[in-house]
Request: fold
Amino acid sequence: MDLFGVYLGDRLGLYRALAEAGRLTSSGLAEAAGIHERYAREWLEQQAATGILDVDDVEADAEERRFSMPPGHDEALLEETSLNYAAPFARAFAGGVRPLDEVVAAYRSGDGVPYERYGIDLYEGQEAFTRPLFTHLLGQQWLPAVPDVHARLGAEPPARVADVACGCGWSTIGIARAYPLVQVDGIDLDTASIAKARQNLQGTDVEDRVTFHERDAADRELAGQYDLVTIFEALHDMSYPVEVLGAVKGMLAEGGSAVIGDERTEDRFTAPASELERLYYGFSVLHCLPVGMVGDGAVGTGTVIRADTVRRYAEEAGFGSFEVLPIESDFWRFYRLTP
Ligand SMILES: C[S@@+](CC[C@H](N)C(=O)[O-])C[C@H]1O[C@@H](n2cnc3c(N)ncnc32)[C@H](O)[C@@H]1O
Reply:
């Protein structure tokens, strides 16, 4: 319930209005954010009751009470490029249960639930959660930790990169920003995500070196000359991951490799499990597994993709070399596949 209170504050711009004003009564918030006063009052009281907001004078008449954001909470709730930005989880969780009736039906039928059925909260929540990682870590820590890839991306002739399953495109944009010579193609089959990626590209300084394509990465026509193919937090969502990895192998130029970032799971099933593993399983039963069950013969990986599973997919796709990369990350493990 606390989480959905955050969802309301995020989606309706209530935190933003509070941060800008410093302190607000319920009528002040209602006016600033364009919502009804009675709802504003209840939400402010709920937020203070649960410790997310401060209240000046608890004893004051309800309409007179003034609410504010404690120091530091603004970073978690409002700072879109901070690595501590936590508000997107509320949107992602709300999106994760949007088609709950279809998920229940899918459990009985064995069918999948298509990604687009989860709607805007899911893909924009995902976008908001991963954007700080792609803005601050991808080009600054993760790729530089793979020395020959880092060197190739910085060298002439300009390297070509394909960012497969790019979602709303911040990883694609992040790579182009970190490496001023490279050309990057972002590829995703979700129409809404690619539209958002094209919108995100506007006003960056890399429009001339980034192109977004709405298409299935398993499409063999993509065979080209890429020095690097990346896939971030998406292999486990794919109905046919081996086919996609097979296509990725075909996309690579001589000396090229694929770098994959996916969930930092335990090596094997444990119960009870860590908080992180519980988070992954939670997403899996509601969203990632149903998404990966779409289509005849879909493999249905689920969020809890283990290193052994990635290795098996890589081998089945024909990659000759599989390596777990020594990259520190709270959420993801990184793999390098070479033909
Ligand atoms: C969890 S999202 C990750 C998006 C982005 N990489 C990020 O980290 O924010 C998974 C993405 O995989 C995409 N996807 C799944 N299967 C795909 C395929 N066969 N080809 C291209 N994109 C695919 C989905 O459309 C979705 O955007």
User: Anything to note?
Assistant: The radius of gyration is 22 Å.
